[in-house]
Automatic annotation (TrEMBL):
Keywords: Phosphopantetheine, Phosphoprotein
Signal peptide: none
Gene3D superfamilies: ACP-like (1.10.1200.10), N-terminal domain of ligase-like (3.40.50.12780), NAD(P)-binding Rossmann-like Domain (3.40.50.720)
GO molecular function, one term: phosphopantetheine binding
The organism's taxonomic lineage, starting at the top: Eukaryota, Fungi, Dikarya, Ascomycota, Pezizomycotina
Protein name: Carrier domain-containing protein
Annotated InterPro entries: ACP-like_sf (IPR036736), Adenylate-forming_Reductase (IPR051414), AMP-binding_CS (IPR020845), AMP-dep_synth/lig_dom (IPR000873), ANL_N_sf (IPR042099), FAR_NAD-bd (IPR013120), NAD(P)-bd_dom_sf (IPR036291), PKS_PP-bd (IPR020806)
UniProt key word Phosphoprotein: yes
Domain Carrier: 565-647
Length: 1079
């Protein structure tokens, strides 16, 4: 059983803990291990007294045999290196070194000699304690580099020397107080080296003392901490002792939690499933703590699965466990708990709360750790630790990195689908492992890899495809499958791959042509804990993967012939090609939208583009067939017409966008005309609403706001502003999520520092969330909810709109249908609410003249289908105001910047947007562009201030507006500044003050650096620097000569006092953004 927390838990130095345990319970067994290779013979036990005695003897030995002569001001504590057999010397030396004033460095036996040399040199390790066997230092010395050549070797006695207590060692004096010793290093390990050479990681005494403070953490909803049934048990620890989980737990569980660690045979360097099974049979441990690779192997065999069932608890860490394996354990072993532990070399175990048995693969991070799951888009959340003084003893990461205020772990999670379990998150993989395909689609490969490796056929599986147009599978057969021929193995693998594809996004699925079977003589590169090193493995198979893609791309490009003989043959051949891509036998109508109805993704668009380009007649250049042509013409009728016109026009792309937009405008205008206006409306003779905010009455009537898109970036700030406006009596938020966006909203408001306001409004019944599909009848709401809106709504704030500049205007039809449905609500409502719509300055991106605050109808000025869709929406709302005498305001929103007025500068400008990406890349290269070309003018508005401006627009009186006339205003900064005048010098000054100055360079040179870096960047760098994925846009800053059009704000400043008095963007705002980005 785990011992009760010590009164000084969290403020005790590790050597004192060991001495105290020996004094209080000298005969308690801390460790058990086999006495010989024959596990049936009696095992060796080590008591607390023997362990403390061994530590003292080792401390004297270090003092007498290692001279502290190489410590420097940079490394005040001399670093001693060691690797050897997996025995107790790893644990003994840690505490002995601390007592003697040294620190131990342990390296992985899986490291390359070059990797070891890099760690030793970076850590300043000048002395190596050499075991008689089980060491690999000779390989490092053979490199002959100047640093390793100077390495001093000291022979280390065998384990028996230290454990011999026939003549007890005198106690080694260690008298440091907590304050004197807390910042002394306790050990040095290293990163896994998944993307390059490993790097040393030093932990300190206060860090491991904080781990003891975990025993003080409170239960959450009556649930204890995860692993509580393993810490104090007789637990077999299956991790290498040089690994953080093997070292940290092997020392702390016996000393802090009262447990006993069962170890395997000391003459085996690395564990296998067979070894673990033998240990379980011989030692009968109560619990196991294993790497997932070992647990996968043990659970595949029925006999060893039942052996696992003799334990009360199994924990795993260091990587994920396949869903199939975990469920098998949970289903078949009802008396054995399964726990997923999460930790890092830098911080140790992350305190988590026990979950339900069926939720074994979810993590409930303890709230007192200060760790947050921050939204990274696409349903993924990154684990981030935010520093809080009150939680210091449970935040050991800030012992390792004392200068940081926030630490992103770079681990991604997805939230539990059950709203009642919103604190549970499923591990999805590392940010570094996210694959970015050549079409910009992102793939998180881990779920597919786990599904595939769960098969008994598969030994290892790696999903690859960084920078490629398609994912591929690199797979190693299991030993039992190696006897199969290649065709037989692939045939047997096919259903496994099909199952994995079934749950994957369409763009991530692996085609049968994209499977590469690895060579048994070229095993995958691995870390010390046994997980695959992704980048080195991909590099190992680079030539084979290049050849695979060349063959597969050629095969995929074959397809059916795109027949340009007649317009009908072109239409028919395109229909068959698209049916093949969509894997459907259903007929595709001429007007079916490729993306909305058929469901094509960007990868399939690229394949279709290649097929068309292959078969074009001589009058069309293959290079003229771009993916954008398909996006702009997303139906058989449109694409056939565009291609046929190109053929007739000698290869010139036909611009059918204007006509498509005009057709949509005409179609939905007819629908608007048919909407019936409520006979019970509160309109006066002039057709204007007379509710409390739109009319002239001084009496207060309840203000009821309907907000769409509250979980968007702008929407979250707008909701925050509404919550802090006392005159707003009730707020309803409509979002597409099943829970109406409530859980995501909680997270967003927490990041804005306003979670309390949200909870208060929910509790008071002032705030409501509803699942809605705006294009559906009654907005997809229940009848009673819709009737409530008809009775009560005074304002409709519509911000929900898909942002995708690739899509054609016709793909935005659900959004345009939503506009009509919102007009229908407003027209049928008792109080005729003021409807405000956030449009975009993108409706006039191509305008050569200044843009007035007027409704426009020239679709040629829009730069994309997105801009055209917003323009169609504007014109529909103009018509709705005229036909139904509704108070309507259209706001064309410009560039939204990061917030600047929130308490403690909470919130953040999304680091993946173009400007934050530009600055981050500049910090990386130490080069900053002196101009921003087309985007030189800075007329941005911070998100939090824009929300207030929008509310002022929404509540402004409409009495001055002519009956049936909608209001149109521009939300751009009326006092624009420039990059060169303000932002550029502010960014330079910031980095100069940090001691990391940037070089000013011409924009062309900066873009050239970006393009070059993008061509050579590895997976990790591409994931870290989003600018590498924005090359086309950022390059256009230098290549597009015309500046962005000016947008008039004469009407806007009359309707918003905030906009009228808004000061220009200044250095203090720039400084806030830079701090938000951690730069």
């Amino acid at each position: 059983m785990s011992s009760a927390p010590h009164p000084e838990a969290g403020r005790r130095l590790l050597p004192h803990i060991a001495d105290q345990v020996a004094a209080d319970t000298p005969d308690r067994v801390l460790y058990e291990y086999p006495s010989s290779a024959d596990l049936t013979r009696p095992w060796t036990t080590v008591t607390a007294r023997q362990f403390a005695n061994a530590i003292d003897r080792a401390a004297y030995w270090i003092r007498d045999n290692v001279h502290d002569t190489k410590a420097t001001s940079d490394n005040p504590t001399q670093v001693l290196g060691y690797s050897g057999p997996p025995d107790l010397r790893y644990y003994i030396l840690v505490l002995a070194a601390v007592k003697a004033g040294f620190v131990m460095l342990y390296t992985s036996l899986r490291n390359s000699p070059e990797g070891d040399a890099a760690v030793l040199e970076a850590a300043g390790c000048t002395t190596w304690l050499q075991a008689l066997r089980g060491t690999h230092i000779a390989r490092v010395i053979d490199l002959g580099t100047p640093f390793v050549a100077s390495l001093r070797l000291v022979a280390l006695p065998e384990l028996g020397f230290f454990l011999d207590d026939s003549t007890p060692s005198p106690p080694f004096p260690y008298t440091k107080t907590w304050d004197e010793g807390r910042r002394d290093p306790v050990w040095v390990l290293h990163t896994s080296g998944s993307t390059g050479h490993p790097k040393p990681v030093t932990r300190f005494l206060d860090s491991v003392a904080f781990a003891e403070a975990n025993t003080l953490l409170r239960p959450i909803q009556g649930r204890p901490l995860l692993l509580h049934d393993i810490w104090g048990a007789r637990a077999y620890l299956g991790f290498p002792m040089f690994h953080a989980a093997g070292l940290n737990n092997g020392i702390l569980w016996p000393l802090v939690h009262g447990g006993t660690i069962v170890l395997g045979p000391p003459d085996l360097a690395l564990n296998t499933a067979d070894v673990v099974a033998d240990v379980i049979r011989a030692a009968r441990p109560e619990a196991l703590y294993l790497p997932p690779s070992l647990l996968e192997d043990l659970a595949k065999d029925e006999a060893t699965l039942q052996l696992l069932g003799t334990t009360k608890a199994i924990g795993y860490a260091g990587g994920p466990l396949s869903h199939a394996t975990g469920n098998r354990i949970v289903d078949r072993l009802p008396h054995t708990a399964l726990h997923q532990g999460i930790g890092t070399t830098e911080t140790g175990w992350l305190p988590a709360v026990l979950t339900d048995r069926r939720d074994w693969f979810y993590t409930h991070v303890h709230p007192d750790t200060g760790c947050e799951l921050q939204d990274r888009g696409g349903g993924l959340y990154e684990l981030v630790c935010v520093r809080q003084a009150a939680l210091e003893q449970w935040q050991p990461i800030f012992s390792t990195f004392p200068d940081l205020h926030e630490y992103p772990f770079r681990d991604l999670f997805s939230r539990h689908p059950d709203p009642r379990k919103s604190d549970l998150y499923r591990y999805e993989g590392r940010i570094d492992n996210v694959l970015v395909l050549s079409n910009g689609e992102k793939v998180q490969p881990q779920a597919m890899e786990l599904a595939i490796v769960a098969s008994p056929l598969v030994g290892d599986a790696l999903v690859v495809g960084q920078g490629r147009f398609q994912t591929a599978l690199l797979v190693q057969p299991s030993p039992s499958a190696r006897s199969l021929s290649l065709p037989d193995f692939l045939a047997t693998l096919a259903p496994v791959l099909a199952d994995a594809n079934r749950t994957a996004p369409a763009h991530a699925r692996i085609h049968a042509d994209f499977v590469l079977v690895g060579d048994a003589s070229k095993p995958f590169a691995r870390t010390g804990k046994g997980t695959i090193r992704r980048a080195p493995t991909v590099e190992l198979y680079k030539d084979e993967l290049d050849a695979l893609y060349e063959r597969a791309e050629a095969a995929q490009g074959e397809g059916g012939v795109v027949d340009f003989a007649t317009k009908e043959s072109l239409r028919g051949s395109l229909r068959e090609a698209i049916k093949g891509l969509a894997s459907t036998d259903k007929d595709i109508a001429d007007d079916d939208d490729f993306f909305v109805t058929v469901g094509l993704d960007s990868l399939q668009v690229l394949t279709l583009r290649r097929q068309i380009a292959r078969d074009v007649p001589d009058s069309i250049r293959p290079a003229d067939i771009a993916a954008a042509l398909i996006y702009r013409n997303p139906s058989l009728a449109a694409l056939t017409g565009a291609l046929w016109k190109m053929q007739s026009a000698g290869g010139q792309a036909a611009d059918g966008e204007g006509s498509a937009a005009e057709q949509l405008l005409a179609e939905y205008s007819r629908t608007l005309q048919a909407i019936k206006t409520s006979a019970n409306g509160a309109n006066g003779a002039n057709g204007h609403a007379t509710n409390g905010t739109n009319g002239a009455s001084n009496s207060h009537t309840p203000t009821f706001v309907l907000l769409t898109g509250s979980t968007g970036s702008l929407g979250s700030h707008l909701l925050n502003t509404l919550l802090h406006t006392p005159d707003i009596d009730e707020i309803w938020c409509l979002n597409r999520a099943d829970d109406g966006g409530l859980e995501k909203q909680k997270e967003l408001q927490a990041r804005l520092g306003t979670a309390d306001s949200l909870e208060t409004a929910l509790t008071a019944g002032r705030l409501h969330f509803r699942h809605s599909r705006l294009a559906d009848d009654h907005l997809g709401l229940h009848d009673d909810d819709y009737a409530r809106l008809q009775r009560s709504a005074t304002h409709i704030l519509h911000t929900q709109w898909q942002v995708d500049f690739n899509l054609a205007v016709s793909s935005f039809t659900p959004h345009l249908a939503g506009i009509v449905k919102l007009v229908e609500l407003a027209a049928s409502s008792t109080r005729h609410p003021h409807l405000l719509f956030t449009s975009s300055v993108g409706i006039a991106n191509r305008s050569a003249a200044a843009v007035p605050e007027q409704f426009l109808s020239d679709f040629s000025t829009a730069g994309s289908g997105y801009g055209e869709s917003k323009l169609v929406a504007e014109l529909l709302l103009q018509k709705a105001a005229a036909v139904h005498s509704l108070p309507i305001t259209v706001v064309r929103v410009g560039q939204i910047s990061g917030p600047v007025t929130l308490p403690k500068h909470a919130g953040i400008w999304n680091p993946k947007e173009w400007f934050p990406s530009l600055v981050a890349f500049s910090a990386h290269t130490r080069r900053l562009p002196a101009s921003l070309g087309r985007n030189e003018r800075v007329d941005w508005i911070p998100a939090d201030i824009l929300a207030q401006i929008l509310l002022e627009f929404a509540t402004a009186s409409t009495a001055a507006t002519a009956p049936g006339e909608a209001t149109l205003v521009h939300a751009v900064h009326p006092r624009a500044t420039t990059w060169s005048d303000v932002l550029f010098p502010s960014v330079l000054a910031h980095f100069e003050a940090q001691g990391t100055p940037l070089q000013a360079v011409p924009l062309d040179d900066w873009v050239a650096t970006l393009v070059k870096e993008a061509q050579t960047a590895d997976d990790a760098l591409s994931a870290k620097l989003s600018a590498l994925r924005l090359v086309p846009f950022l390059s256009s800053l230098a290549t597009t000569s015309a500046p962005r059009p000016l947008f008039d704000t004469s009407i806007a400043v009359q309707k918003s006092a905030t906009l009228q008095s808004l000061p220009p963007i200044a250095a203090d705002s720039v400084e806030i953004w830079l701090r938000q980005w951690g730069l």
